[in-house]
Specification:
This protein is of the alpha+beta class and 321 residues long. It is 33% helix and 28% strand. Helix 3 crosses helix 4.
């Protein structure tokens, strides 16, 4: 059976870093308060960089590591909920920037779960024999969706991009699961930056993220362990066989709670949210790229990737490195 194998990773981050100390000057908060409740110490914020430039930079790095030329890519999938334009889609703009002239491309929006949904879409295309080489990118510029006077959300998010190159593999291991609960979607929302009322065209609706933090926390600490168990059962392997659990980097307390409920030591749950905050669809591929570049991922390692976010949506993949 055809499966996928990650052959290259890459990431890109804006140059501007906003520390917790800087946020203390903007809202009623403190470095200690933010670290205690989230684990976040700083985040990168776009100043001049765009979703397209960040995604393209991450893509070039992933291609270079994979030893692939852009024209060898068959398909580009971009997971994002913060595109600069509704159309052309970000994937087509990335195709233009990296000169992937033979690739098809389109975007997916599943918020913070987006990279997993895109990865699973790539697997479906590869398994069906439609494409052999796919570039999957998770990218978001959450700073453009944040109300910087709202301390409940502005402390959480950052900007960035992560990319992987996928190739067809014979044999390999890849199982997946994805779920949505639209009935509870109103606990985490964000509207279009350009939404206008027909009767009042001059009154554009604010594009801020609105979040019921307690509800999102309860949702995440319940659903992440559930999807991990679902993946292990589908793969018919034990949790002891998993080298690392790469979870969406939203909040340290969520990851710690998920590790405890899963019965796995926290040392097998990599984290970098202290440096980047919640980068939405980019968080898992950025983390993968860091671990890969540090040489911490070995051929044959079994990895669980799991994400959760607005929708509500949650998804996971279990694969072999």
């Amino acid at each position: 059976m055809r499966t996928i194998r990650i052959t290259g990773t890459g990431s890109a981050l804006p140059g501007r870093i906003v520390t917790n100390k800087e946020l203390e000057q903007m809202v009623e908060t403190s470095d200690e308060w933010i670290r205690e409740r989230t684990g976040i110490g700083e985040r990168h914020v776009s100043v001049g960089e765009t979703v397209v430039t960040l995604a393209s930079e991450a893509a070039r790095k992933a291609l270079e590591q994979a030893g692939k030329r852009a024209e060898e890519i068959d398909l580009i999938l971009v997971a994002t909920s913060t595109p600069e334009n509704v159309f052309p889609c970000t994937a087509c703009e990335v195709q233009r920037e990296i000169h992937a002239e033979h690739a098809a491309g389109f975007d997916l929006n599943a918020a913070c779960s987006g990279f997993l949904f895109a990865l699973q879409t790539a697997q479906a295309y590869i398994q069906a024999g439609i494409y052999r080489t796919v570039l999957v990118i998770g990218v978001d510029s959450m700073s453009h969706m944040v109300d910087w006077s709202d301390r409940s959300t502005c402390i959480l998010f950052g900007d960035g991009a992560g990319a992987v190159v996928l190739r067809e593999s014979k044999g390999g291991l890849f199982v997946q699961a994805a779920h949505s609960d639209g009935a509870k979607g109103d606990v985490l929302t964000g509207c279009s930056r350009h939404r206008k009322n027909w009767d009042h065209p001059d009154e554009a609706k604010a594009a801020y993220i609105q979040m019921d933090g307690q509800s999102v926390f309860k949702f995440a600490v319940r659903r992440v362990p559930e999807i991990v168990e679902e993946l292990l059962e589908k793969a018919r392997i034990q949790k002891e066989e998993i080298s690392y659990f790469f979870l969406h980097q939203a909040n340290r307390r969520i990851i710690e709670a998920a590790a405890k409920r899963t019965g796995v030591d926290i040392s097998r749950f990599p984290m970098n949210l202290q440096e980047y905050g919640n980068t939405s669809a980019a968080s898992i591929p950025i983390l993968l790229d860091e671990w890969n570049k540090k040489g911490l991922l070995k051929k044959g390692d079994k990895l669980v990737l799991a994400g959760f976010g607005a929708g509500l949506s949650w998804a996971g993949s279990l694969l072999e490195w």
